[in-house]
Amino acid sequence: MWKGVIEEYRKFLPVSDKTPAVTLKEGNTPLIFACHISSLIGDDIEVYLKYEGLNPSGSFKDRGMTMAISKALEEGSKVVMCASTGNTSASAAAYSAKAGLKCVVLIPEGNIALGKLSQALIHGSKVIAIKGNFDDALELVKEITKKYPITLVNSLNPYRIEGQKTGSFEICDVLGDAPEFHAIPVGNAGNITAYWKGYKEYKAAGISRKLPRMLGFQAEGAAPIVLGHPVKEPKTIATAIKIGNPASWKQAEGARDESNGLIDMVSDDEILAAYKILASKEGVFVEPASATSVAGILKLAKKGFFKNVKGRIVCVLTGHGLKDPERAIASISKPVSLEPKTDAILEEIGL
Ligand code: F0G
Fold first, then answer.
1. 193 three-state secondary structure
2. How remote is the CA of residue 240 from the centroid of ligand 1, in Å?
């Protein structure tokens, strides 16, 4: 049986026999060949989807949270805290419940998807909605965790990055090497930092032979790295990446530059178009922020970026579509309402 990322990749992680591994068996998510999207990108391109929505709390955060919570427990912490656009709080809440730690989460009021809020609440964490955005919440968490004996479990916590880098290991294990391109949404920029670290470590260990070009994508209304300055009031329907001043900004630029990659932005319309293609053509339901990686490569393909290019692109799909059911329902026409009669149904389906 799959043992969770700490046990599976122990020799690449800062853990010892004394580390109590708090796991919900995260990781081992499928890498799905995307037939339709590949055909939209280029003749010699294969697109794969790393479906991180299938982690225990429904997002990639679980890979980092198993590490952050295990280390917090090892170090004797009793309370953990994070700021979140939703997924970090859901994951922190679940792993804290498992570990018996108290968890406090700060969320931007009215700006997190319903599924994520329900998760943080049901796992028993203290949920505080602040009248501000994610960046304000993170500043408060940094200030409080500096002064009080509370462990910060945002991706500023280096153990989060360590755990999240296992996503790259899994991709290389399945493909036999790193892909040519790695496409990823960028919000607080922890995940692009983690994936790049993972690819480099696997190559250094001689397990993979190449490194991918990292293609990061932000939402147009929340694209500080693309614009080169913080965005005071970020705006996007992709609430998970509605961030104006990413904590790992410099590291994301490092991943971009070292890998000869790029960080670009996509509009909300492009995100929603990719969101619908993923669901209706590939059978993969993700939350809007996750579709940013696919929206990004579709945008690049239109500009001819993949012309005469051969290779594989892995798109990380960071969170499950059920996190944000309201967005799905708002994006598609409503179900038809009929009397419970066979004739009416047959007529409606054209029989
Ligand atoms: N996709 C989803 C679904 C996310 O929840 C996030 C970040 C990202 C992409 C971006 O990843 O921050 O490492 O660049 N969510 C954080 C949260 C900020 O609080 O849940 P990143």
1. helix
2. 5
Cβ(115) – ligand 1 distance below 6 Å: no
Beta strand 31-33 with 45-51 is antiparallel
What are the pLDDT digits (tens) for 126-177? 999 999 999 999 999 999 999 999 999 999 999 999 999 999 999 999 999 9
186 lines ligand 1 (CB under 6 A): yes
| Tokens 């970090």, residue located | 88
Is the distance from the beta carbon of residue 321 to the nearest atom of ligand 1 less than 6 Å? no
Report how far residue 31's alpha carbon sits from residue 174's, in angstroms, rounded to the nearest whole number: 8
Two structure tokens written together for 182: 């790695």
194 CA closest ligand 1 atom index: 13
Q: What is the strand order of the sheet 79-83 is part of? A: 126-130, 102-108, 79-83, 151-152
Phi then psi for residue 334, to 5 deg, are -70, 160
Nearest C-alpha neighbor of 266 from the set 226, 305, 233, 208 = 226
> Is ligand 1 within 6 A of the CB of residue 245?
no
Stated pTM of the model: 0.97
Nearest CA to 168 out of 297, 265, 94, 60 is that of: 60
| Residues 57 and 118 sit within 8 Å (Cβ to Cβ) | no
Distance CA 338, CA 323 (A): 29
- Tokens 């049986």 locate to 1
179 Cβ below 6 A of ligand 1: no
Task: For the chain, state the CA radius of gyration.
Answer: 20
